[in-house]
Design goal:
With 197 residues, this protein is mainly alpha-helical. The radius of gyration is 18 Å and the shape is elongated.
Length: 197
């Protein structure tokens, strides 16, 4: 089944760009001067984020894996559809966690929280839309299927480059420092390089 692989590789590459997003949530290490209030806020969010980050990573891996095999379009469709569904659910859950934790105890905390929730919900919706797109692809026609995957890879690319501005704003300064101290956020990032901010 030659033909699906290069495209699905492109999809996988685009996808790994998007997955950077949650890892941004692990923030950067910093001075240990965040307040008790802020620490408990960070702990609540980080504890909720960790399982979702794992879910996103697993979805990512399943798509990457599908690219290395000589997969049929139907297999690719099934894997990608499930992965996008998982990612959509995960971002929705992270948004809900940030919402539930309330506003962090910092200047403009309420606005930063609201913006981040809105952004996370938007990303969740984007992945749900991608799932619909994958589900609608014609797996019987290899050429059409490959073209469809190309479009999805382009969308993913955009999603990965959307900047996650609100999320980054939420984690500026003290909030980022408080999050960086949480064990669950450290393990969510899964890489020591995340601490060099």
């Amino acid at each position: 089944m030659e033909g699906t692989n290069p495209v699905n590789k492109k999809l996988a590459a685009a996808l790994s760009g998007g997955a950077v997003l949650v890892l941004a949530l692990s923030g950067c290490g910093g001075d240990d001067d965040s307040s008790e209030k802020l620490n408990s806020w960070a702990k609540e969010v980080c504890d909720e984020v960790q399982p979702q980050a794992k879910k996103i990573e697993a979805a990512n891996t399943s798509i990457q894996k599908q690219t290395s095999d000589n997969s049929t379009p139907a297999d690719v469709q099934k894997t990608d559809s499930q992965a996008f569904q998982d990612m959509s659910d995960a971002y929705k859950a992270i948004g809900a966690a940030v919402k539930k934790a309330g506003a962090p105890d910092v200047e403009d905390g309420k606005k930063k929280q609201a913006d981040a929730v809105k952004e996370l919900d938007g990303i969740s919706t984007s992945y749900a839309d991608l799932k619909k797109q994958v589900d609608a692809l014609d797996t019987k026609d290899q050429g059409k299927f490959a073209d469809g995957l190309k479009d999805i890879a382009t969308e993913l690319d955009k999603l990965g480059q959307s900047g996650n501005v609100a999320l980054n704003k939420l984690q500026e300064g003290e909030v980022g420092q408080a999050m960086a101290k949480q064990e669950s956020c450290k393990s969510a990032s899964g890489s020591p390089s995340a601490t060099n901010g």
